Structures are given as C-alpha cells and as structure tokens.
Amino acid sequence: MNFELSDENRLIRETIRDIAQNVIAPNAKHVDETGEFPYENFKALADAGFMGLVYPEEYGGAGADTVAYVIATEAISAACGSTGLTYAAHISLACAPLYYYGTEAQKQSYLTRLTSGESFAGFGLTEPQTGSDAAGLRTRAVRDGEDWIINGQKMWITSGGIGDWVIVAAVSDPDKGSKGITNLIVERGDAGYVIGKNEPKMGLKGSVTSSLFFEEVRVPDSRRVGDVGQGFIQFMKTLDGGRISIGAMALGLGQAALDHSIAYAKERVAFGQEIANFQAIQNKLADMAMELEAARLMLYQAAALKDAGKPFGKQAAMAKLFASEAAERATFQAIQIHGGMGYSREYPVERLYRDNRLTEIGEGTSEIMRLVIARQVLRES
Questions:
Q1: Which tens digits make up the pLDDT trace of 171-191?
Q2: Measuring CA to CA, how many Å separate 380 from each of 306, 359, 368, 373?
Q3: SS3 168
Q4: Nearest Cα to 70, choosing from 316, 287, 314?
C-alpha cells in the first residue's frame, strides 16, 4: 500500500491549512460564543474551490478524490468545529444525493449552486420519533397526479435553517417498509414548508441545526431524487460516505487538542520545569498521537476504497467509530493537561471537547457503528 499523498493532495493540504490558519481559526472563538453562522469562512472556501472539492469540473467541482476531502475536513475542523461540521454535511449530505442519484437537470440546477458556494442545503432524514431507526420514518409523500404532497416533521437537520432547499426522505408506500421511501426536494418558500427554531446545542454552535415542518407541501415529480421507493438505499449509501466525513471532523478536533496540549506543555512550568518533561504528560501525548495517527490511516483507507469503487461501508464505520472515540479521549486528556485552565473558556480545549461530542452521535451513534461493523464481520466469516 502506498502511504504517500499525491502531489495534488499535498497542494490541497497546504492550501486548506493556510485558509484554516489565517481565515477560519481566528474567528472560531467568536463563532462559538455568539452562535453566528460563519459565512466569511465559506466564502473563502468557495473562492478556493473547496465547496465542490470532490465533484467533477462539469458540475463546478474541483475533481479531487475522497482522500483530499478527508484532508480538507480535518484541517477545517481543527480550526473550527462548527465550520467543519457544516462543510462535511455540505459535501456528503447536500451534494452527494444529487450527484449520485439526481437527474442531469437537477445537477445543473441544484448541484452547481452548491459546488459554487452560492447555496446551502439540508438532508432531511432524522425525525423526532426515529433517531437511529432510519427505516421508521413517519413523514409521508402521497402522489397526486404529477405532484407529491408531503406531510411530516424533521429535526436535527444540519444547514436546514439556512438552506435554499432540503432533500426530504418520505414514506411513499407504507406497505413496502424500507422499499417504500422516496426522496424529494422541497425548496424554501414552498407553501406549507416551515423552518423551525435552531437547536441550542452543547457545542458546534455556529453550525445551524433546525427542525423542519411540512404541511400539505406540494412539489412536482421533477423534484424527485432517483427512483420511487429507492430513498432508503440512497440515504444509506449517502451515510456511508458521510461517516468518512464525520470521522475526518473528529480527527481534526482531536489533532487540534493534541497540538494545543503540546504547546501548553512546553510553556507551562511546574515544580521548576516544563510539564512536558513529566512522564505522566508524555504518556498522555504519546497515546493521543498514536490513536489519532491510526484514525487518520483508517480514514485514508476508507476514502481510497471509495475512490476505487470498492465496498467501503465497513471501513467507513470502523474509521468513524475509532476516530470519534480517539478524539473523545484526546480532547478529554487535553483538558487534563491544561489543568484548571483547560476548564476555562480562555483556552480552546474546552470548546474542542464540547464540539467533539457530536461525532459519536451524528451519522450513526457509536452503538449503531458497532452493530454495522459486527453485521459485516459476521457476514464475511
């Protein structure tokens, strides 16, 4: 296996690190304290061609591979978790269903606005009563001539409150179970579509997370994404790719925790010397570095399999699970290394800890990831 990055990906890494350091990171504390959506961060990303990073140039993208996407998401998330989550959801949840399942007209109308950074969009899957039970949707879509009429509610929809549209997973045939779900595009301004409040969250406060309501929303069949009844398959495959992105987000948060811890350990003096000289601190740093590097390699492997057109669902679940839990340990230990200052909002490690909690929940909880992995392992044995 070749562990060397391509020349293109090395250039992408240098470019995104520059943007992250000079544009995104300086604003991260303000974003966390105010909850303001960081539009300026995404303008910088759009200007540099990152908003459509992995999609073909014919649709306004940069044509890069999934490894580049992992690199970009890690760097962005290390600078600002809110920006990292929004970026990850933009590439994986907003763009992917349109690119893989949309019509050519939908790609030209919707996807190109996403890749240019002109628009944001949401992916409406989670509901109040479903959560991890993705097949138990209650939102309904009933065919009425050349239209669909949608009724229901979604929640925890990233970028839903700022999106120009949302792709809604709805039950179109209740008798067919998971084979009776269809995905439809609902645009901001459609009659009966109401965007609810933005959720007050523990972390990632600059990423907009909203409830969405649909009451007799009528949309034309031209806004159907893919075939009738194929919505479940579409969003399960979309989530496989999304797990790589959430893993990369966790990796970025964990790496930031390690970087801040190293810097603090070198400057903090106790008992007459830098605390970096203490073996207890060194052990923590060693474990953090080791686990994060392992997570990075797992994510690169999952990304490489995806790019090669090979099955990658198990590897994506493993990478997401391991990276999110490694980052949980890294952000926890970062606070320990900082001592009392780690509990203060004057230092960024408490924000990193709060922001990372979502990575063990979103795109499938750690418990669900273990089920996914176990089923794959048992199937292969």
A1: 999 999 889 999 999 999 999
A2: 19, 27, 19, 11
A3: strand
A4: 316
- Count other C-beta atoms under 10 Å from residue 311's C-beta: 12
Structure tokens given for 239 = 């989530």
* 220 bridge partner residues: 147
pLDDT of 381 reads: 85
Average pLDDT, the chain: 96
Listed in sequence order, the DSSP H helices in the chain are 7-19, 28-34, 39-47, 66-79, 81-89, 96-101, 104-106, 112-115, 231-267, 279-307, 313-338, 349-356, 366-380
Closest by alpha carbon to 70, among 351, 287, 325, 297? 297
- Cα–Cα distance, 180 to 201 (Å, whole number): 33
Return the structure tokens found at 171: 């039950």
Average pLDDT value for residue range 1-13? 89
How far apart are the C-alpha atoms of 31 and 16, rounded to whole Å? 19
Residue 170 has phi, psi (to 5 degrees) of -135, 150
pLDDT at site 3: 74
Which candidate, 145, 146, 163, places its Cα nearest to that of 154?
163
Exposure b/e, 260-285, CB count within 10 A at least 16 = b: bbbebbeebeeeeeebbeeeebeebb
Q: In Å, how far from its chain's centre is CA 270?
A: 39
Catalytic residue annotation:
363
Q: Which domains does the chain have, with CATH numbers?
A: 7-120 (1.10.540.10), 122-229 (2.40.110.10), 232-380 (1.20.140.10)
Q: Is the pLDDT of residue 356 over 80?
A: yes
Tell me 135's DSSP state: T
